Amino acid sequence: MPGVLWVEEQDHLQRRYESKGREAQNPAEITIARELDRALDKVLDEAVDLWSRVQDPRLARTEFTAAWAVGSVLRESRLLEHKALRDEDGGFLWEVLAEKSWFGARSNGTKEDTWESIRPARRQERVQRHGGAKGDDYWSMCRWLAEQSYADAVLVFGGQVGNVWQMLERTALRPLPVRKALCGWLGDLSEEGRGRLTQRKGFRELMKALRNRWPAKGRRSALQPIHLSEDELRSEIAKVALSAGLFEKD
User: Fold this and answer.
1) ∠ CA(164), CA(188), CA(227), 5° rounding?
2) What is the value of pTM for the model shown?
């Protein structure tokens, strides 16, 4: 089914209707595409509102809060179930959303400048989906991040999007129970100890150590973290961090 892909030509917003990589011309398909476009207006507006209400620079960087707000609204919207997305590639919605947010294109053809506060930083001159180094998509990352409450997500990642990518790009560490266990363990540390581990370098080293404990492939990949209880996970995380010299036990 189709979606609206926005472009800007000579300072004017133009829409094209696309389905499975081809231009859609069927009136029924165009109607469905416009319905999705209006639904995306609502998602982006609500994400801006949520970002403005929870944003606190003392707790998290602006881009982290924006990513969590977008993800939270996307999860609540159930947009992935929209009829326009039936039989479409999983990344089609993210492509549509990326171009729409970048051009600030409302479904009525007007520009919406407030969306600038919740979209990712531009890379190069063309519109991209702004994924991670290993091909993960920015918008799907937002949904993944928002599986936790804002407070828990800030605690786990130190309010930094870079840390989110570090964990997301290690497949075995993606399941929510791992983040819940990490949240519980970090919450028990001193503020100073937690701060060291959630700084970019400390978090990267922690993720490397956890990946080595639970590799996604190879002989040692049989026992994954999802097979452990939350208490067992917390205990293992502590052992791994201690063994890697990332913190000192009280």
Assistant:
1) 60
2) 0.89
Sign of the alpha-carbon dihedral angle for 70, 76, 80, 84: negative
φ/ψ of 16, rounded to 5, equals -130, 150
pLDDT digits (tens, 9 = 90+) for 73-101: 999 998 888 888 887 777 888 888 988 99
Structure tokens at 5: 């892909």
pLDDT of residue 127: 38
Say which amino acid occupies 52: S
CB 36 within 8 A of CB 105: no
Whether 96 contacts 3, CB under 8 Å: yes
Residue count of the chain: 250
What is the DSSP code string of 2-43? -EEEEEEETTEEEEEEEETTEE---HHHHHHHHHHHHHHHHH
pLDDT tens track for 29-59: 889 999 999 999 999 999 999 999 999 988 9
Q: 3-state class of 13 per DSSP?
A: strand
3-class secondary-structure state, position 98 = helix
Query: Tell me: the pLDDT tens digits for 110-140?
Result: 999 999 999 887 653 333 445 544 456 889 9
Q: Alpha carbon of 148 to those of 34, 135, 152, 157, 160: distances in Å?
A: 31, 22, 6, 11, 15
